[in-house]
Structure to design on (195 residues):
């Protein structure tokens, strides 16, 4: 049996990363101030003080960092704030995704209700909202929440930059055992032992 010469090149190991949620992803999923004002006016919801929410959360994070600066070194402060800001961004993104699903359901229900041939989508008895109306109102409420959390996340990101001196980026961790289950790894080890 002929042996092949060992390759002089070492194979590079590619380590996949688990992508973190960015502020840009939040901005794409959550309503901005203009859209939120339109939603609030259309559904009779309170008009949020978007700048106030953002500024309050920025101050909150900056004050937290000021309170910790004696006990934490520069790198420890950066890691701590990175995690806090990541939580704000992740929460806002989750709310934005939920809002998007609610809008889709409201659109679908409204389109079905516009079809005169469907009895099940007609308005209920007098004094009760239709299912499509309830879905639209629910989507509007979720938009209000998503916008508020977006503003909080923007404030937290601003505080990070102000405190640390560099733009916030989501932490990207390595994917553990990509595509390998424990059983598969055990089988590979057993087969290697068999020769």
């Amino acid at each position: 049996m002929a042996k092949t010469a060992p390759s002089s090149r070492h194979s590079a190991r590619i380590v996949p990363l688990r992508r973190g949620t960015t502020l840009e992803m939040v901005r794409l999923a959550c309503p901005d101030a203009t859209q939120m004002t339109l939603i609030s006016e259309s559904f009779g919801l309170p008009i949020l003080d978007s700048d106030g929410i953002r500024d309050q959360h920025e101050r909150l994070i900056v004050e937290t960092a000021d309170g910790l600066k004696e006990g934490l070194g520069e790198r420890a402060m950066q890691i701590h704030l990175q995690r806090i800001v990541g939580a704000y961004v992740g929460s806002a993104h989750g709310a934005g995704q939920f809002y998007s699903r609610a809008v889709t359901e409201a659109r679908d229900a409204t389109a079905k209700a516009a079809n005169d041939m469907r009895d099940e989508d007609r308005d209920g008895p007098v004094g009760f909202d239709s299912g499509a109306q309830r879905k639209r109102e629910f989507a509007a409420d979720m938009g209000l929440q998503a916008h508020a959390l977006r503003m909080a996340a923007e404030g937290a990101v601003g505080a990070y930059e102000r405190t640390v001196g560099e733009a916030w980026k989501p932490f990207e961790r390595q994917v553990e055992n990509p595509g390998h289950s424990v059983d598969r790894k055990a089988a590979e080890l057993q087969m290697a032992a068999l020769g």
Q: What stands out?
A: Helices lie at 23-29, 33-43, 50-68, 74-113, 131-164, 182-194. The beta strands are 17-18, 173-174.
